[in-house]
Amino acid sequence: MKNILIIGAMQEEIDPLIASGNFEKKDADIFPYYVGSTDEYRLIVTVSRIGKVAMASCVQHFITLVKCAPEFDEHEIDLIINMGVAGAISNKLRQGDLVVADRLCQHDMDVVGLGYEIGLNPDFESVYFDVNKKIIEKVKSVHDAMDTEYELHIGTIASGDQFISSHEKKVFIEETFGAYACEMEGAALAQVAFSNGVDFLVIRAISDLADGEAPMSYVDFKPKAIVNLTQLVEKYIGG
Ligand code: ADE
């Protein structure tokens, strides 16, 4: 059976998914998780907590756990999905719309002082981590078959350890990285998954427009955004 690891940065980003299925909770000192299954997949669902460091350590922890723990029969993780909310960077996006990353970057990675391109970690060849095109195609066809008022956008997601709520930062992220949306974990997941040779999918619902109104609209709209997103993720995994 194939293993899919699903990670939200916050408990409320995975709660609707857990509530809709038959999951068993596994307690652990670090990164408690839930295990469930569909006809095709074993699902491991967890919370990383906020930011790139938390996400990177969470992803590496589960890649190693699934390889080593007897309960997983020495299986590998076949796909890692990050679901959660994001701020809109492109003005094509409305609150509630869904964004699937076709590539991810870190908007706060800056080694320009040593002569590197903005956003480039010198340990890697590119500013961007690309998502497997087949995975994106599958999300798109699942969304096309759904009856929803919210659009699915496919584009760059930029991550950083910052909640974006100013016009200047938003313009910087759009102009420098061509990003559609911003959040605080996806690119960390992409980097660790890439380094381990594991496929990944980052899919986010827009909770706010990453502007001066963002702190208020984020809080108000987050629960609704997560419900839309959960429907799409459930259909993707066939649960
Ligand atoms: N997640 C949701 N909205 C965000 C924003 N405006 N900045 C960073 N992460 C977010």
Characterization of the model:
With 239 residues, this protein is an alpha/beta fold. 35% of the residues lie in helices and 28% in strands. It has helices spanning 11-19, 52-68, 133-144, 167-177, 186-196, 214-237, and strands spanning 2-8, 24-26, 33-37, 41-47, 79-88, 98-106, 129-130, 152-159, 179-183, 199-208. It has a five-stranded mixed barrel, surrounded by four helices. It is globular. The model has no long low-confidence stretch (mean pLDDT 95). Adenine (ADE) binds at residues 85-87, 163-165, 182-184, 207-208, 210, 214, 218.
Report the biggest beta sheet as strand number plus sense, adding barrel if it closes.
Answer: 5 strands, mixed, barrel
What radius of gyration results from the CA coordinates? 17 Å
Helix count, per DSSP? 6
Lateral strand order in the biggest sheet: 5-9-8-6-10
Oligomeric nature of the chains: single chain
In this entry the ligands are: adenine
Task: Specify the structural class.
Answer: alpha/beta
Tell me the strand percentage band: 25-35%
Specify the helix fraction band.
Answer: 25-40%
Mean pLDDT over all positions: 95
Query: Cα distance, first to last residue?
Result: 15 Å
Characterize the overall form.
globular
Poorly predicted runs of 5 or more residues: none
The ordered string of helix (H) and strand (E) elements is EHEEEHEEEHEHEHEH
Number of strands: 10
